[in-house]
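Run Transcriptional repressor NrdR through structure prediction, thanks.
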Amino acid sequence: MHCPFCRNPDSRVVDSRTSEDGSSIRRRRQCPACQRRFSTSETASLSVVKRSGVTETFSRDKIVGGVRKACQGRPVDEDDLALLAQQVEEAIRSAGTAEIDAGDVGLAILGPLRDLDEVAYLRFASVYRGFESLDDFEAAIRSLREDHAEQADADSSTQ
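Sure, done. The structure for Transcriptional repressor NrdR is below.
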């Protein structure tokens, strides 16, 4: 790590702290040449491989932007979207790979979005999965209804 003041190619770590969400480490460093201190932030990189083969850095903002369109006009606020993006990132990082296909990111979005808002889920799924007919929508709605019936059965058996 080069010193930002004197460009010395060496520095000594004085203190390390994990960020609140645990996604990065803040390090306090000191230059042995000029004795000045500076801070660095380290994060584990996660790359998304697009269908075209282009690789870009994972971004929660892109998740929020894509899901926001599906949630337009729905009772979903920015905090809900931020939490969804965090859940998606945690699911992706738990796979333990440094690169992930864009398609897998979309799959990781579907579950939390389905729990958040079913109408937004149908909107997102229709684009992501390329619904081409009413039959595709009906199949997705049937699946949601079956899940509701299973949940109702499970709730009634625990009471």
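Residues 1 and 136 are 54 Å apart (CA to CA).
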